[in-house]
From TrEMBL:
One of its GO terms (molecular function) is adenosylmethionine-8-amino-7-oxononanoate transaminase activity. The lineage of its organism: Bacteria, Bacillati, Actinomycetota, Actinomycetes, Streptosporangiales. The gene is bioA. The modification N6-(pyridoxal phosphate)lysine is found at residue 275. Pyridoxal 5'-phosphate binds at residues 111-112, 246, 304-305. This is Adenosylmethionine-8-amino-7-oxononanoate aminotransferase.
Length: 420
């Protein structure tokens, strides 16, 4: 099909994410992805500042990842995981356990499903103990689009308010103080006291605490002080409550540490990973837990049809091997420095509320919701692909970006901020 036919059929049949029917923002036909660039059907070449929703950390069409997929395909594309096992999944579980210090690995289909599994683990863990089923989290969070995951997303400012009347009710703490506050800042001390009081007040109903470590992703792209995470770990221990770390967006180096929890020097009881796990090649996620949690849960009542898919596990193994070999810390630090320097000019734009950078994450927050189509036209004219939402123009570039690529991304974001 030519591009016109693809777009015609897309408009007729496809329902895109977070979009009405028909979509209010036009789609663009991609015909190739190579390195950190997307080639559109009209010939334009764009630096992908989104890493395909934060997943393609190594870039596209990587020979090592391609080879892993082709090699696995010759053996088997899929086999059920109930009663059977295979080397790619076992290797992946061993690698993830070694990276995280978590003992048990439950492989799933997507990040949202990984969060659902984590919630079920926590509830089953407590079922034979005290029967508690409430979770505590913080406002401004996002954990996915399925029902259990939606219930621990921000109930007021999140994207799931339409379902608030049918979702389970959980306990929400205020948004945490921003990353970068001094450790002795009185605002931080006051927040930690408030957090302590809230957990204590609800301890008799809490099965777990769930948070995105240090970075709140799609709920607002906010960075918060690691002391909040340390205090949650202490409170979870004090009140015999599980701590769940949703590392789906923050895992595998995105924040400058291997995992968001590393900023606080803590380990959760349950951890969710996904997105960059396969380098953006196939949908795969995992929910990890300690041996103590697994022993108390017993039989986990969950079983995805494509759990442990050999193709996905094989490419995940290759992706994690590649991550271990590449100087990702230096690459992320270089991206961070480029975004800090490149986005500084946007602070003076009248429509800009805040500019912030952490690791390979750059954010321009605006006072009012942005016009997505208008912003995309501006950045695409500068050779960059971004997908703004709400009041956010943001980037999460692949680690493979050169300084010139990062400069281009930052310049496009600044140009977009100038028309707010």
């Amino acid at each position: 099909m030519d591009a016109d036919e693809i777009l015609r059929l897309d408009l007729r049949h496809v329902w895109h994410p977070y979009a009405a029917v028909p979509a209010g923002v036009p789609a663009h036909v991609v015909c190739r992805a190579e390195g950190v660039r997307l080639t559109l059907a009209d010939g334009r070449e764009l630096v992908d500042g989104m890493s395909s929703w934060w997943a393609a950390v190594h870039g596209y069409n990587h020979p090592r990842l391609n080879e892993a997929l082709r090699g696995q395909l010759d053996d088997m594309a899929h086999v059920m995981f109930g009663g059977l096992t295979h080397e790619p999944a076992v290797r992946l579980a061993r690698t993830l356990a070694g990276m995280t210090g978590m003992d048990r690995v439950f492989l799933a289909d997507s990040g949202s499903v990984a969060v659902e599994i984590a919630i079920k683990m926590a509830i089953q863990h407590d079922a034979g103990h005290r029967g508690r089923s409430t979770l505590l989290t913080v406002r401004g969070g996002y954990h996915g689009d399925t029902f259990g995951a939606m219930s621990v997303c921000d109930p007021v400012n999140g994207m799931h308010h339409l379902f608030s009347g049918v979702l389970p009710r959980h306990v929400f703490a205020p948004r945490p103080p921003a990353y970068g506050l001094d450790d002795d800042d009185p605002r931080l001390a006051a927040y930690l006291d408030e957090l302590s009081a809230l957990v204590a007040a609800h301890a008799d109903e809490l099965a777990a605490i769930i948070v995105e470590p240090v970075v709140q992703g799609a709920g607002g792209m906010r960075f918060y002080h690691p002391a909040c995470l340390r205090r949650l770990r202490e409170l979870a221990d004090e009140h015999d409550v599980l701590l769940i770390a949703d590392e789906i967006a923050t895992g595998f180096g995105r924040t400058g540490e291997l995992f968001g929890c590393d900023h606080a020097g803590i380990r959760p009881d349950i951890m969710c990973v996904g997105k960059a796990l396969t380098g953006g090649y196939l949908s795969l996620a995992a929910t990890l837990c300690t041996e103590r949690v697994a022993a108390r849960v017993g039989v986990l009542m969950h079983g995805p049809t494509f759990m442990g898919n050999p193709l996905a596990a094989a490419v995940a193994n290759a992706s994690l091997d590649l991550l271990a070999e590449r100087p990702w810390r230096a690459e992320v630090a270089q991206i961070e420095a480029g975004l800090v320097a490149g986005l500084a000019e946007a602070r003076d734009a009248p429509g800009v509320k805040d500019v912030r950078v952490l690791g390979a994450i750059g954010v321009i927050e605006t006072h009012r919701p942005v016009d997505v189509a208008k912003i995309q036209d501006i950045v695409m004219a500068r050779g960059v692909w971004l997908r703004p939402f709400g009041t956010l123009i943001y980037a999460m570039p692949p680690y493979a970006c050169t300084p010139e690529d990062v400069d281009r991304i930052a310049a496009a974001m600044v140009a977009a901020s100038g028309v707010l």
